[in-house]
Design brief:
With 365 residues, the chain is of the alpha/beta class.
Length: 365
C-alpha cells in the first residue's frame, strides 16, 4: 500500500487488497484479454510503491502500478485505476493519458541516468563515450480501469472521441485505449480467480447497490472455509469488515451479528483478535486502536499487542517469538509495521523490515 494517507474507504480497500501479489496476478490472469495474458510471466508481477494521482483527485480515483515480465523477458507496466464514485466520469481517458505520460517521463529520466552512468564509466576506462549504449525504448503500459458504480458505463474507449469531430483529426491525436473491468457486467457466479479476489470484487460491486444486506452473509460464507484453512487471511477479513462497516445504511451491530452468525463458534475467537475493534470503531485508524488498548496497559504495549497478534495469525507463529522483536521499536514504528503487514509474504520479510528500521533509528539518534 502506498504511503499516502487514505481517507476514502474504497481507496483503503482497493489499495490494501489489490496490492497483494496473488490478487494482482489473479486480476490480470482472469480479467485481461487472453492474448495479453499469454505473453506474460505472472510469477514476476510486482507492485510499484508509487501513485500518480494529485491530492485533489484522490477523492475520485485510486491507482496501483505493477511491473511484469513477458515470456520473452521484456518488461511492461500495468496501470490499474479505480473510479470510486457511484457514477461514470467521461474524462477518465484524459486522466489516464496524464498518468501514462508521467510513467513515461519517469522511464525517460531513468534511461538518461543509466546512459550518463555508462558514459562516466567509459570516460574512466578511456573507452569511446557511447560504448555499450544501446537505443532506448519505453516499456509499454497497459491501462486498466476498475469501475464499481451503479450507473451504466457509457464512456467511449478511444481517446479521439473526447474531441469535437475527433475521428476526422485522429491522426493528429494521441491514439490509445484501455481495458475496462466493470463489476456490474458480472453476475456473482461469473467472478473468477481465488476466493479473495472474488469476494473483493463482489463487495465493491454491491457496496452501492440496494442488495448489500443480503449479499454480506454470502460474502462471509465464502470466507469461512478459507479462514479455517489459512488463519493469515484474517487480515483480509478485517479489511473487508472495515470496508463494509463504512456503508451508512448498515450499522456496526448488524454487521457484527451477521459475522458471528456466519462464523458460528469461530466467530467469537476471531472477533476477539482484531475484527471486533474495527467494526466498533468504523473508520478509526490502527493508531487509535492501539490507544484504546493503551488506556489500560500503555500506548506502546497496546499497539504492540495488536501488531504481534496480527503477525502471529499471518505467519502462523507463537507470540513469544514475535514480541521480543518488537520491544525495541517505538509505538509509531510498530504501527507502521502493522500497516505494511498485508503486503509481506513471510516472517523473514517482516524481520528484515524491523532490522532496517532499527538501523535507521540508530543512525538518526
Amino acid at each position: 500500500m502506498k504511503e499516502s494517507q487514505i481517507t476514502n474507504p474504497h481507496a483503503m480497500f482497493f489499495e490494501k487488497v489489490f496490492v497483494r501479489k496473488d490478487v494482482s496476478s489473479d486480476l490480470v490472469r482472469h480479467y485481461l484479454p487472453p492474448d495479453v495474458v499469454e505473453k506474460l510471466d505472472l510469477s514476476t508481477i510486482q507492485s510499484v510503491n508509487k501513485s500518480f494521482i494529485s491530492n485533489e483527485l484522490k477523492a475520485i480515483y485510486s491507482d496501483l502500478l505493477f511491473t511484469v515480465k513477458t515470456r520473452t523477458d521484456d518488461s511492461i507496466f500495468i496501470y490499474l485505476l479505480l473510479e470510486h464514485k457511484s457514477f461514470v466520469d467521461r474524462w477518465v481517458l484524459l486522466q489516464l493519458l496524464t498518468y501514462i505520460v508521467k510513467i513515461c517521463e519517469e522511464q525517460h529520466v531513468l534511461n538518461k541516468q543509466k546512459r550518463d552512468e555508462i558514459r562516466q564509466q567509459n570516460k574512466k576506462q578511456c573507452n569511446p563515450e557511447n560504448e555499450g549504449i544501446e537505443t532506448e525504448y519505453l516499456n509499454p503500459i497497459i491501462p486498466v480501469v476498475l469501475y464499481h458504480g451503479k450507473s451504466r458505463w457509457n464512456v467511449k474507449s478511444d481517446f479521439f472521441e473526447l474531441f469535437h469531430k475527433g475521428r476526422e483529426y485522429r491522426k493528429y491525436l494521441p491514439n490509445f485505449t484501455f481495458e475496462l473491468i466493470n463489476t456490474a457486467d458480472y453476475n456473482d457466479d461469473e467472478f473468477r480467480g481465488g476466493i479473495i479476489i472474488q469476494v473483493a470484487l463482489m463487495a465493491m460491486k454491491h457496496f452501492f447497490m440496494d442488495d448489500l444486506e443480503t449479499k454480506v452473509p454470502e460474502l462471509l460464507s465464502l470466507l469461512v472455509d478459507l479462514i479455517e484453512q489459512k488463519d493469515s487471511e484474517i487480515e483480509f477479513l478485517e479489511t473487508l469488515l472495515r470496508y463494509l462497516s463504512t456503508n451508512k445504511d448498515y450499522d456496526a451491530n448488524w454487521l457484527k451479528t451477521t459475522f458471528k452468525e456466519t462464523f458460528k463458534e469461530k466467530g467469537e475467537s476471531i472477533m476477539n483478535t482484531i475484527a471486533d475493534i474495527w467494526i466498533e470503531k468504523g473508520e478509526e485508524t490502527g493508531k487509535k486502536i492501539g490507544k484504546k488498548i493503551g488506556k489500560k496497559i500503555g500506548e506502546k504495549n497496546g499497539i504492540k499487542k495488536v501488531v504481534a497478534r496480527l503477525m502471529s495469525k499471518k505467519f502462523n507463529m507463537q507470540l513469544n517469538r514475535i514480541t521480543p522483536r518488537l520491544n525495541p521499536l517505538p509505538a509509531n514504528v510498530i504501527m507502521e509495521l502493522g500497516e505494511h503487514l498485508l503486503s509481506m509474504n513471510s516472517f523473514e520479510e517482516a524481520y528484515q523490515w524491523i532490522n532496517d528500521r532499527k538501523r535507521t533509528i540508530k543512525m538518526a539518534a
